[in-house]
């Protein structure tokens, strides 16, 4: 073989290898590997104080981050981290019991997902008892329920239904974990029934979701809850479940739209379809997670979505600062029919709304 031919073949091989690597979710360079990022964010969370609602109850963003750190620890088999995360929960059984959220709101009840995840790791019945209480009370109509709550319950939905897109993570996450723990179909049936309701009521023709019916803006993190909730539900929903086709339809429709709106940098903006707004990290991480799961499960075309997911992850990494805080995270945001409202939202470094989905991505990409 001539030297010229050898060099040509070598160049072709190198190009094919590079192209193949760009189309996969492996082979990240040092400093950007999911294992490194996951470790930095997880240990940062372990050493942090609880994120509380007005100093009273555990905030759902903290629960989301805790779940992400546990997922990362399990994927990487980091036994030290698992133990630290378990130890962090132990005071809830004693002197921090007052910090347990009341069982009367979607944002509060999703705390049960953390207890149920810890039960699956430890088989400690204390976790199971707490977790199932949160899962069951989402469907147990309280005595002081109002007319709207009673109406939802009469139709077989959670009395906590409010048709906010956030709910399709908050409700489904605790029902999913209850199903994993018990194998009882009622839990997965509940989650699927709710998801179909929300898809039918809220998804727009382009696959995305307005922040609210009267607020025609596609807010990144708001849509992110759907981008995470759907694939997490589909992963455990039985193949023969009657609601699976509808949920898969909604998921694929959303993923296609997100692919179309991804910025050249790999990120997504605070308002998904508004190119003049700033890039936002929590929504970007949620959308990236939706891509990653779809690729790993074979629901998304690898040639189309793997480069997009890879580009997104690599774009996300530089937003983790030297203190292991995710930057450019939009703070909690209520609806408002005003574009400037979204443009002007403060951005926090280390806000757990951003730490959590970064950890979900790191966990999903880590391990074998």
UniProtKB/TrEMBL annotation:
Keywords: Hydrolase, Signal. Substrate binds at residue 166. The keyword Hydrolase applies. InterPro entries: 6-hairpin_glycosidase_sf, 6hp_glycosidase-like_sf, Glyco_hydro_88, PolySaccharide_Degr_Enz. GO terms for molecular function: hydrolase activity. One of its GO terms (biological process) is carbohydrate metabolic process. Residues 1-20 form the signal peptide. The keyword Signal applies. It comes from the Bacteria. This is Rhamnogalacturonyl hydrolase YesR. It comes from Pedobacter africanus.
